[in-house]
Structures are given as C-alpha cells and as structure tokens.
Design brief:
- The radius of gyration is 24 Å and the shape is globular.
- Helix content is 25%, strand content 20%.
- The protein starts with a helix and ends in a 9-residue tail after the last strand.
- The chain has two domains: 364 residues, NADP-dependent oxidoreductase domain (TIM Barrel), CATH 3.20.20.100; 72 residues, Immunoglobulin-like (Sandwich), CATH 2.60.40.
- Strands 3-12-11-10-9-7-5-4 form an eight-stranded parallel β-sheet. Strands 13-14-17 form a three-stranded antiparallel β-sheet, with no helix packed on it. A three-stranded antiparallel β-sheet has the order 16-15-18, with no helix packed on it.
- Strand 13 and strand 14 form a beta hairpin.
- By secondary structure, the chain is an alpha/beta fold.
- It has 13 helices and 18 strands.
C-alpha cells in the first residue's frame, strides 16, 4: 500500500491533488521561500475572504481552516476588513489547539504556520479623531479575535507572522502611513502613521508611547493594494527596509490591465520582498457569478477554465511566491467536490512554460472574457515612457537621470539613450527601488548633441494584443 509520500512520488505533483487524503502531512507539499522573511510556505495560502467572510451558505466556516491545515497549507490569511473572518480563525484555533493559553497548545504546529492579518487604517495615532480606529486598535482586535477570547484578552506568547497595511489605493494614503516615521519618538508628532506604531509592536519597543507593555505581537510588516504605481511608490519610499511582503492582484488577465506583475513585482523582488498574489479568479468574475462574486460554491463551472489552471498560471510567473485564494466550499467525503483539493492541484503542478501561459490566457479570454479585473485593477495604460529626464555636467562627464518607465503588456527590456537622433547608449532594465532616479554617467564626448532622450524598450515573450 502506498504511503502518502510514495503516492506523491509515483503519481507526480500535478496528478495527485484530486486524490489527496485529508491527513496529508505538510512536508509532502512543496515549499517556496517567502522573500527575505526567512520563512518558507506552501505556495497556496488560505485566503481570509469567501466563506470565512460571508458564511451564510456554509454551516461551519472554521472547518475550512481546519481542513486547510490538515491538507498541509501553512500560510493563513485574514484581515480586520473581512468581517467575521478573524473570529472564524479564533474558533478554528480552539479546535486545533493553537492558542498559547490552551493546556494542549500545539507549539510545533504553530511554528510551522505563517499567520497574517491586515489593517485598513492609515494612522497609529490621530488626536483630531480620538475615537476613530487606528492601525494599533486593529492589531489589538486581531490578536484577541484570533488568539484570545474576542473581548480584549490576548494570551502571552501570541504573535502574528505578518501584519499588513491593507488596500493602499493612492499616494495620499502612502503619505499617511509614513507620517511622522522619522520622528516617531516625539510625542508631539500628530498624526502618526501606521508604520511608526507597528514598528513598536514588531520590535518590542515603545518609542511612540503606544506600546507601554512592549509587546512583540508581529514579526513582519507588509503592504497590500491594487494600483501598481501606488505600491511602487510605497516601496521606493521605504529607506528603512521595513516592508517585507507585498500582496496584490495578479491573475490571467493581469496584462490586460495596468499590470502588477510587470511593474510592482520587479520592484518588490529587487528589494527582497515576498510577493503574494490575490484575485486569481477575478473575484469570482471568471466563474460568472451573478450575485455575490466573492463566494464561489463550486469547483469551477461546467465548460470553464479549471481552477487549477488559474492558480498554476499565477504561480508560474517569475517573482510570485504564493497565492492566497478564498474557499467557498469543502467536502470531506468527495474530494472532487473540495475546492481546497482542486486548488492544491494547481499549486503543486510543475510551472507552466511560456507557451502554456499563453494558452491559458487565450482559453480564459475565449471562455470568461477579458473584462474580469475592472472592479479592482486600473485600466490598461500601455507602455509609459520614463519621466523626469535630467542632464547634469560634472567636469567632462554627463550624468543623465530619469524615473522608471511603466510597462504595458510586455516586460521592459532596456533604456536607450539618444542624443538628438543618435543612439549613444543602452542600459539594461533594472527596477527603480528608491525615489532616487535611475542614472547613466558617461564622458561628455560620448554623447554629442541634444536633446537627450531616454526611451524604454520591451521584451516580447508575449504576442502583441488586440484590445
């Protein structure tokens, strides 16, 4: 009789998922490093939405969490904005003994898990709104709901692996979360952004006066959001290297919108940040949900693109570490009717080749259309050429500076430097990881004439699109 490990070896990861036994050991699933966090995770994370947020069509949402852990998933996602989701985790953790005050606390299991939540509040302190929720009150709410009694109590030893600033949608919001960071030890600074306060709860410090007990409730800080340019700006401003994770939408139709994979992901990877993809099913749009697109209750739809292919596509893209997918329905008695099992199939499958990626894109376009991301991703803008081109002379050298181009539906390959009509230099593309411009220094004699122009060129691993 095959052991679970033998079954994986004999059938191969891509063929195994629909036959996975419910007791599969975690070490039998593949792991990926999660950026510079020092952690490794199964590339499929349990998303905190779907039935965990909207439990009306499922009698026991915490069992989804228990089932995910049983099947070997170790990245568990939730958020303050997801209604009852955090409380569902609290109930599930009672069942599998993951609260530190439990006499049967399973410390080994807790060590294996990577538990992340989020705050949508931009400030840690805002005296002009003394009764408003803050990133710190959200953190306290998460801790008591997930690990405590849901009424304020948090047991000693409870800790999140990551707490993320959620759903950044504008540069103004980025300004808010950075507010006062360099003067966070000054009690007169107000308002004080989310990052300043969360750092205290990461470091066990009390520079802000918001953590008098010097709790260490979070191990890492991350960001989430939808617009690539906003997320890029937020990462570029992080001169302290606080941010360790980036969670953002990336699915089969990403290139048909303002692409996150071709713009924000290269910046995150160059900074060593983990990248977690969401919205792999277009928030339900790829399965044509007519009412509540957040909750899909079936394993795909008849004639539709298989969920495993939607997951495999995103997890095959360079730079993506994991994908968080919400679950609407499990079935312990029929593995073919269990969304977790179907999704694991895509997560453990071999990476798709470039030809396979294009084939999946084409299949989705034909069956589900290309207008699936409009509710959460900015419209396609095409290749946007570099901005802020400046030329300075230093003795007999010219220093040319520019801000990054933004990709359309093809990766940026290089920057070409023109002096008048003459191509005088080509600079391979590198992501702009700080607010400092990209630059080229060259002898003035090598760049005769003007005006100086910087033009981005693209690779073409994908065919041109008709839009």
């Amino acid at each position: 009789m095959y052991s679970r490990r033998d079954l994986l070896r004999a059938l191969g990861a891509a063929a195994v998922a629909h036959r996975l036994p419910s007791g599969l050991w975690a070490e039998e699933l593949p792991y990926r490093p999660l950026g510079r966090t020092g952690r490794a995770v199964v590339p499929l994370a349990l998303g905190g939405q779907a039935t965990l947020q909207y439990p009306t069509n499922y009698y026991d949402p915490p069992d989804i969490i228990v089932r995910a852990v049983e099947l070997g998933l170790n990245y568990l996602d939730t958020a303050n904005a997801y209604g009852p989701s955090q409380a569902q985790y609290g109930m599930a953790f009672d069942r599998i003994h993951l609260k530190p005050n439990d006499p049967n606390y399973n410390a080994a299991l807790r060590e294996r898990l990577y538990i992340a939540s989020k705050t949508s509040n931009r400030y840690s302190r805002n005296r002009s709104q003394p009764n408003a929720a803050t990133a710190i009150s959200d953190l306290k709410n998460t801790m008591t709901q997930v690990f405590g009694d849901g009424r304020g109590y948090v047991p000693e030893g409870a800790c999140l692996d990551c707490f993320q600033i959620h759903n950044l949608g504008s540069i103004a919001q980025v300004d808010q979360i950075y507010a006062g960071l360099e003067r966070r030890d000054d009690p007169q600074v107000d308002p004080l952004g989310a990052l300043a306060g969360l750092l205290d709860f990461r470091d066990g410090a009390n520079l802000t006066g918001l953590n008098p007990e010097k709790k260490r409730w979070i191990k890492r800080i991350g960001i989430t959001g939808h617009p690539a340019d906003v997320l890029m700006n937020c990462m570029q401003r992080d001169q302290w290297h606080i941010l360790e994770t980036l969670l953002l939408p990336i699915n089969v139709n990403d290139r048909r919108y303002f692409s996150n994979h071709l713009n924000a992901v290269p910046v995150a990877r160059a900074r060593g940040m983990a990248v977690i993809a969401i919205k792999l099913f277009g928030q339900g749009a790829m399965y044509n949900q007519p009412t509540n697109p957040t909750v899909i209750q079936t394993v795909g739809v008849p004639g539709g693109v298989a969920p495993a292919d939607l997951i495999r596509y995103t997890l095959s893209l360079p730079g993506v570490d994991a994908a968080a997918v919400g679950i609407g329905h499990i079935n312990r008695n029929d593995l073919s009717d269990d969304q977790l099992v179907a999704n694991i199939q895509g997560a453990v499958a071999p990476s798709a080749s470039a030809a396979e990626l294009l084939a999946i894109e084409s299949q989705v376009a034909q069956i589900h259309g290309t207008s699936t991301n409009g509710s959460f991703q900015p419209a396609y803008k095409g290749l946007q050429q570099p901005t802020g081109v400046q030329v300075a002379r230093d003795a007999d050298r010219l220093i040319i500076r520019w801000n990054t181009a933004l990709a359309g539906d093809q990766p940026i390959h290089a920057y070409q430097i023109y002096a008048g009509a003459n191509l005088v230099a080509t600079v391979p593309f590198t992501p702009q990881t700080t607010l400092d411009p990209l630059s080229l220094t060259a002898p003035a004699s090598a760049i005769p004439g003007d005006p100086i122009r910087v033009v981005a060129t693209v690779n073409s691993p994908f065919p041109p699109r008709r839009r």
